[in-house]
Amino acid sequence: MKPSIAIGSIVLALMVSMTAIGFNSAISLVSHKSNLTSTNSSTTTTMTTTMSVGTHVFNATQSSSNSSIATQENETITKYSNQTTNWSKLLSSERRGQLCDSNMANMISKLRIAVVKPVFTASAYQWNGFYNAYNTLGSSKTSNEEKLAALKDFQVRLSNSWGFSGAMANFVSSNAAKQCGLVLGKNVQIITDVDIANGTLFYPNNGSARFDVVTLVFDEYVTSSEYDALYHFVSSGGSLILMDACNFVAEVRYNQTSNIVTFVKGHGWEFNGSAAWSLNYFERWSANNTNWVGSTFCCFKRLAYRGAQLSNSSNFITKGMKNLFGNQTIFTDYASHEENSVTNMTNTSIIASFIQTKPSNLLVASYIHLYKRGVVIHIGFMSDDIFGSDSATQDFYILSLFYTSTR
């Protein structure tokens, strides 16, 4: 249930000048004094508003229907259902037996592994959440009253859910994972964004890392403290495995007392609690991501692929994948959804690059990026889409863990 939110003395500046990611409208609303109240039990929003739009001034008390925006992108706000996982591929495959021999399973079993449940991103994708606000504020077809009312959707209750990433949750608790040395509750721990923001990656007495490896799935939204903690984890020697693209795009703030997640900045917008305005960039930490992650978000259904080709690199993971797949194309079940492009080739080794049916200058690839004392391993695309049934993505994850155990 969403809280009732009263927003007073709103100054909403929507100066939309972005040409990327579909923001093309321009509107400025100034000198607003509004009392906006919304509850779940009513579909009516009552406004008392003094509004200046250009030179036209409205003094009105009005009641308007708080209807949903019919043009919302179903792809971005519809929750994924848990995928049906083809565990028979894992449990009976000869390749699986070859991959997870006793030596590999033993090495992985000695790792301290954290798998992060992306609760902030799951919260952002709730119905009538952040994406309702983006779509309403960015649309030329919505009224000024609807834009004002949409600000409340930048504040949502925390959803203690895996969101789009249920396949990874299923995998780490499976017998197949145990065969490869991952034992939930022993060497594998499930933690959340909130835990990371609260400092759980490090021991408080001496600041040393609690984990050797942190696995992220779809972590589009993080707090600044969570982002800083992950950066410190890698730079001080940790291994970060990213199994999805579109990571660290936007900043949120979390209030543990109220259990409310509030949008702050990124995704083309900024919100200060009472006002929102558009930005001329999309990613919150783009330059920083290039530096230590090695890539940035590039594409939402922008490119088309026919799988990925393993590189000629001599890195550990590429060699392991070639032992399993030879020179055949991998990730062939993946359709264009969301991808990162590699933007930093310093200390970066490409594992596999996507074959683009319409070539671009973007390098969409899986890679290893060494940063300071640590390493980032990035699959480069939304593997959540196929992780439950595609053996190559599962093998990639296991080989990534084995690689970290040898560092």
Description:
- It is globular, with a radius of gyration of 23 Å.
- With 407 residues, the chain is α/β, with parallel strands linked by helices.
- The protein is built from 14 helices and 19 strands.
- An eight-stranded mixed β-sheet has the order 6-4-7-9-19-18-17-15, with helices on both faces.
- Helices cover 26% and strands 26% of the residues.
- The N terminus is likely disordered.
- The longest helix is centred in the last third of the chain and has 15 residues.
- Helix 13 runs antiparallel to helix 14.
- A hairpin with a 4-residue loop joins strand 12 and strand 13.
Strand order of the largest sheet: 6-4-7-9-19-18-17-15
- How far apart lie the N and C ends? 46 Å
Task: Label the overall shape.
Answer: globular
The level of helicity is 25-40%
Number of helices: 14
Supply Rg.
Answer: 23 Å
Low-confidence regions: 1-97
Portion in strands:
25-35%
Q: How many strands? A: 19
Oligomer: single chain
Mean pLDDT: 80
The major β-sheet equals: 8 strands, mixed
Quick summary of this structure?
With 407 residues, the chain is of the alpha/beta class.
